[in-house]
Specification:
Helix content is 50%, strand content 20%. The protein is built from 12 helices and 10 strands. A hairpin with a 2-residue loop joins strand 1 and strand 2. It is α+β, with helices and mostly antiparallel strands.
Length: 438
Amino acid sequence: MTTEPPAIDPDDDGVEAPVTRGELVSRFALLVVGTAALVALTVAIGGWAWVLMIASVILIVMLHELGHFATAKWSGMKATEFFVGFGPRLWSIKRGETEYGFKALPLGGYVKILGMTSMEALDPSDEPRSFVNQSTSKRVLVASAGSIVHLALAAILAFVALFWIGQPTPGSTQLVEGFYSASKATAPGEAAGLLAGDEIVRIDGRPATSATLTSVIEASAGRAVQLVVVRQGFTHPGMPGIVPRVVRLQAVPGTDAKRHGHGYLGIYLGSITVLGHPGVQESFVGSGSLIWQVTDATLHAFGNAFSPTGLASLAHQVASPKAAAAARAHGATTVSFLGALELGVDAAHAGALPFLGLLISLNISLGVLNMLPMLPLDGGHVAIALYERARTRRGRKPYRADVAKLMPVVYAFLGFLVLFVAGKMYLDVSRGVPNPFH
């Protein structure tokens, strides 16, 4: 929730000039054209994945603000503005007591709820509906609504990922990834006709598990073994597309003197990751477990990042390129918002499942950060509401904290946050963000 101060106009007489329908249409047309131009420029410079990621972040932020707005309306509070973006107003329309619209900088959005703190001057008629004059439960609900939305979005995305896309599980299928030879001759497996990409499914009539392949091949030096493989990339006559086919091969394992005369085919094997498709109930339970794991990991990551050791490490990385490179190489670092955008682009290129996973982590991270108990974050409003409730005595006038006394601490916190974020952004820009989705 953000309260944007009004611009001061020396010629303003206090009465807002009416906006004609033609002006509204012109502004809206300018907004559409400008958005289209911005999207085209982003695609030209960074590609479709950047548009997808930026659009996803804007949608996430607006849903966060919508959570505040909807709960404020439900609680009877007065919300006077709901805008997408910041800066100069491009287009708006007023419905009832709320003005809805778009502003020039599409860097998020905000909802203006009257009386977020006791420092805000209000018209006496608005006092009963101000945020600070509501019950503690309503104040906590409205202030927490953004983070609740992030948690709900993460849960929905996790369910979609599990139910519609599938849950990755390591498969047991043996995939030929390459060849090697214990002598100058061609690898026995390659000589037998195996190709990179073949899936070995049976050996001598037995299912080709890793253990079975190893035991049969090692015991069969100089003796032919029968292989059944599934080969991709075969175009069947009269059928569109690429379909797999079953190929039967006979291979004679060579003798590897360095391994006590054991047989070998000289093939590098890897397993295939398969996607399991759980049902509705399993996906629901699995999404809850996934959210818990991501939340726990996020809390630990933020705890480490904001700890004395983490802050000292950040300062050392900013000052030492060698330390920064070592931390990046080992993945022992968190990223800034710019780094998160770049990770999102890499995830989008990797596929739907990695991209949804990144959005899940982003929502959990935003939800946790927003609940830090310090203004201007949402958690600061929650903390003040709970503190005032604890100080209020039964039968007496509700206690109101003097937020002005807290402002030096708020400014110090904001200064620390600016330095922390600047350090993270510097590392992301100067050292780059490793792509974990290769």
